[in-house]
């Protein structure tokens, strides 16, 4: 983990007099999204005279998540966002506490569509850009890991696409440092259908849980289906651990065998059998695309 990031993690936060009056500074235009921990608005930043995405975090919900890491100081989502600088990751401009005691984050406004929406449509756009987006997703995840983080909620609902076809990874609300205290067994957070087996079973976790989630997302991008029957029921999810993942070619017979092999390796239940880094998996996809484009 970069040294400056370590310093930031344990630097005392300034929740003092420099709080922002959100109502005075921002004109809320429309609600862009709502989760269990926050609301995100398209807003006019009167100070900077530009549209931004304003995320207002529910303090009680945030406290419940942080309580899952007893004795540890989980870094602010805004700090995580500020540490990331990649063309396929949403830009974080600032973060802090409002005059109403609400944690907030100011990010770039993305005009486009959620990847989940395009997956469900399976239209010409996703068919044309699918492999490019898969590689871009992997590059974004690789950057997150290189900065010393585990995303813990990598899935289509946390990926946006712009009108120009660019891809942006968003939402760092569950991110933790990729350090032993945060890898300890016991904590289970994330989106159920994308959780790696070791996470479901409350075993030790590291960046390889994100690689599993990346593989599930790739699987879904080809066929709008999941490797297992979708469920929010924990009992069903635990039962899935005793079943092999569905072969992607059963759901999408047109998927080339070479692509299928990469995805299915990412879905291995044993993390030691999985791709060990996002870079490895992304490089494998990139090599396929390069070979396909080479003259014969």
Structure characterization notes:
- By secondary structure, the chain is α+β, with helices and mostly antiparallel strands.
- Helices cover 40% and strands 17% of the residues.
- It has a five-stranded antiparallel sheet with strand order 1-2-3-5-4.
Write the layout of secondary structure elements.
Blueprint: H1 3-9, H2 22-25, E1 26-34, E2 38-45, E3 50-57, H3 59-66, H4 77-83, E4 92-97, E5 103-108, E6 112-114, H5 115-121, H6 124-146, E7 149-150, E8 159-162, E9 167-169, E10 176-177, H7 180-183, H8 197-200, H9 208-223, H10 234-240, H11 248-251, H12 257-266, H13 278-293
Antiparallel strand pairs: 1-2, 2-3, 3-5, 4-5, 6-8, 7-10, 8-9
Using the CA coordinates, give the radius of gyration. Answer: 19 Å
Which architecture of the largest domain would the CATH scheme give at its second level?
Orthogonal Bundle
How much helix, percentage-wise, in residues? Answer: 25-40%
Q: State the low-pLDDT regions, or none.
A: 10-17
Number of domains: 2
Q: Helices and strands: which structural class? A: alpha+beta
The SSE string, one letter per element, is: HHEEEHHEEEHHEEEEHHHHHHH
Sheet having the most strands:
5 strands, antiparallel
Strand order, largest beta sheet = 1-2-3-5-4
- Quote the beta fraction: 15-25%
**CATH fold field value of the largest domain:** Transferase(Phosphotransferase), domain 1
Give the rounded overall mean pLDDT: 90
Please give the number of β-strands: 10
Distance between the termini: 43 Å
- According to CATH, the homologous superfamily of the largest domain is Transferase(Phosphotransferase) domain 1
- Number of helices in the DSSP assignment: 13
CATH class descriptor of the largest domain: Mainly Alpha
What is the global morphology? globular
């Amino acid at each position: 983990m970069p040294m400056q990031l370590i310093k930031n993690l344990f630097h005392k936060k300034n929740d003092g007099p420099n709080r922002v009056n959100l109502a005075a500074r921002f004109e809320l235009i429309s609600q862009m999204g709502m989760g269990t921990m926050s609301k995100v608005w398209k807003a006019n930043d009167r100070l900077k005279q530009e549209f931004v995405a304003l995320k207002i975090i529910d303090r009680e919900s945030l406290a419940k998540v942080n309580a899952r890491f007893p004795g540890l100081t989980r870094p602010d989502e805004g700090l995580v966002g500020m540490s990331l600088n990649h063309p396929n990751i949403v830009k974080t401009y600032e973060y802090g506490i409002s005059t109403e005691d609400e944690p907030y984050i100011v990010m770039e406004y993305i005009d486009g569509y959620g990847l989940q929406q395009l997956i469900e449509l399976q239209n010409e756009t996703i068919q044309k850009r699918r492999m490019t987006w898969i590689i871009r997703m992997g590059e974004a995840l690789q950057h997150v890991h290189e900065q010393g983080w585990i995303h813990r909620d990598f899935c289509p609902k946390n990926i946006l696409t712009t009108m120009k076809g660019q891809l942006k990874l968003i939402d760092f609300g569950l991110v933790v440092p990729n350090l032993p205290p945060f890898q300890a067994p016991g904590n289970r957070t994330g989106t159920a259908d994308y959780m790696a087996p070791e996470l479901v079973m409350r075993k030790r976790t590291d960046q390889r849980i994100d690689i599993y989630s990346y593989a599930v997302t790739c699987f879904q991008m080809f066929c709008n289906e999941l490797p297992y029957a979708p469920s929010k029921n924990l009992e069903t999810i635990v039962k899935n651990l005793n079943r092999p993942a569905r072969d992607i070619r059963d759901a999408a017979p047109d998927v080339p065998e070479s692509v299928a092999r990469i995805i299915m390796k990412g879905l291995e239940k044993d993390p030691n059998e999985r791709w060990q880094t996002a870079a490895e998996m992304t490089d494998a996809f990139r090599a396929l695309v390069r070979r396909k484009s080479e003259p014969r």
